[in-house]
Design goal:
It comes from Fusarium torulosum. With 345 residues, this protein is α+β, with helices and mostly antiparallel strands. It is built from eight helices and 17 strands. The protein folds into three domains: 122 residues, no CATH class; 102 residues, Phosphorylase Kinase, domain 1 (2-Layer Sandwich); 92 residues, Orthogonal Bundle (Transferase(Phosphotransferase), domain 1), CATH 1.10.510.10. The strands form four sheets. Strands 8, 9, 10, 11, 12, 13 and 14 form a seven-stranded mixed β-sheet that branches. The protein has a five-stranded mixed β-sheet with strand order 1-2-3-6-7. A hairpin with a 2-residue loop joins strand 4 and strand 5.
Amino acid sequence: MKSNANFDFTRWEVHETETDCNLIFRSTLGQVFYCHINPDKFIDSPTVLGQYLKCLQILRTGEQEIDDFYDEDAYEWLSQSFAPLITQLIQSSGMDAVVNPTLEHYLFPSKTYNIQLLAVDDELKPEVVDFEGHGWINSIIEVDDDFLRELDQWTRSYAPSNVQLCYDRPEDSLIKTPKRTIIFNQKGQPVTCFFKQFGLSFGSSHAKKELEAMKKITLAQSPPPPNTFICRLVGVVRKNNKLLGMLFAWIDMECVLSKARAAKSPGTLRERWLSQINRSVHWLHEEGIVWGDAKPDNVLIDKDENAWIIDFGGSYTPGWVDEDKAETLEGDYQGVSKINEMLRQ
């Protein structure tokens, strides 16, 4: 194996009723391994089956521990089940680690593999299978030329090959989901951004709704801090007619607002956050813009103790906004009122 090559387990997908699961491993060489486990492929392997079903229960429930079996145990077993084959594929690839990774490397990997896990007499036997497709939803929105022309009128587009990825640890490169990125503006100056990949679990309409909200905020020219603290769109990542995600001005985040964070903060700081949130929402409403999913999880506290409003994709969260008030000004008032109550306790 190349001395600087690494791989890790990054995502999984399970079903409520079916007993199979899908996993994704990534390597620092830019490879992606789509792995599938179907216990019907376990022959005379009761021990393997029992261990797998314990892992499946952890993945389904999100619990950290069930009957003295921990999530770390599940991740370790799943990883080790595929590790020998993945290690072999890395060693034989002839590839080197990517020195300057970009979104192009992450979103469009140069090499992918489909792997299934077999077991015979309780011996694990992962194998590469030859079939097209991997069953994972691709977070890409295809748009027509009219949409792109309209998009270019209010924001910039960046090719994924021009978006550099920043990792704190080299061993995480092209494995961890990209967050901090660097693009170069029209003056050739580096700009640090947060990359938000389109999540299509709710369909493309959710992503387009957030784009529409950011368009309104951009065209209305939201006042900069300290007047408002609202996430700012820098541009959109696209490849031809495929939209891949959004680039937001980087917020040096300390934490997400929460009841615990509010409870341990002095009253003067909580009043500051309350004022910043209310001022930002007031400006949005004056411009006819709905925040949407108003809740503490969508408020970031930065290193300078400022409260930033983020996430304009709509939807609602039970306990903060009623379903019939979702994505309305009234829903915003309801959610912000509950945030105010939390900060005043």
